[in-house]
Design brief:
Layout: H1 16-41, H2 43-66, E1 69-75, E2 80-86, H3 94-98, H4 105-111, H5 118-126, E3 130-131, E4 140-141, E5 147-148, E6 152-153, E7 164-170, E8 174-175, E9 178-184, E10 187-193, E11 200-204
Antiparallel strand pairs: 1-2, 1-7, 2-3, 2-4, 5-9, 6-9, 7-8, 9-10, 10-11
Length: 212
């Protein structure tokens, strides 16, 4: 009598469809976790500060080469920034002076309370800035949860934490000292600009504002 043969079914492997579904789920979970990871490591803040420093260096060179006055416009509330330039000159023509043309200093001081230099107040009153369309300085928005924090430039009395702030670059190959911090949670990186060389670098934390 022949022995009875026991039949065992072979273990079933995964189908191609099941593998695709598993890979897709893993990808979704990784994508969801990436913003949190970037926030924890400060990668978003570091990248944003690096872009700001690069734009500062670029505008310093552009203002000198094009003989234009440029500025980095920072929308603190909106979390965005862009470059603007104007061909309007910094000096007052002799014809206007001979005709008795004069801006009232008190009125300009009221219009531009954060600008201490009288000549710069006259420039701001006359200049019409247009947005700079170059790809290296086009309008950018801060990534993720990154926000501006206590932006300071040389012409300000105190750092700004709301509204608009501007960093100016002049055609004579000079700029103003500035500190533009970006914050992501407890992580802070700052783009720091030197006034004479136009050197911009990224530092960790919130550098102290120079006091006169």
């Amino acid at each position: 009598m022949a022995a009875r043969r026991t039949s065992r079914s072979a273990p079933r492997g995964y189908t191609l469809i099941e593998l695709v579904i598993v890979v897709a789920v893993i990808g979704l979970l990784a994508a969801a976790a990436l913003p949190t990871l970037n926030s924890v490591t400060g990668a978003n803040a570091r990248a944003a500060a690096g872009e700001l420093a690069g734009a500062m260096r670029y505008l310093f060179e552009t203002a000198a080469l094009r003989r234009e006055t440029c500025r980095l416009a920072i929308d603190i509330d909106g979390g965005s920034w862009w470059a603007e330039c104007t061909k309007d000159r910094y000096t007052v023509s002799a014809e206007k002076q001979a005709a008795g043309w004069r801006e009232e200093e008190d009125e300009l001081a009221d219009r531009f309370p954060d600008e201490r230099d009288a000549e710069r107040r006259r420039l701001l009153a006359r200049a019409k800035f247009g947005q700079f369309s170059d790809r290296l300085a086009r309008k950018r928005t801060l990534p993720g949860a990154v926000r501006f924090s206590e932006v300071w430039t040389e012409h300000q009395r105190e750092p700004f934490d709301k509204g608009m702030a501007y960093v100016y670059f002049f055609p004579q190959g000079r700029t103003e000292e500035a500190r533009v911090p970006v914050r992501d949670g407890d992580t802070v990186y700052s783009a720091v600009l030197q006034p004479f060389t136009g050197r911009a670098r990224v530092v960790t934390g919130l550098p102290e504002v120079p006091r006169p």
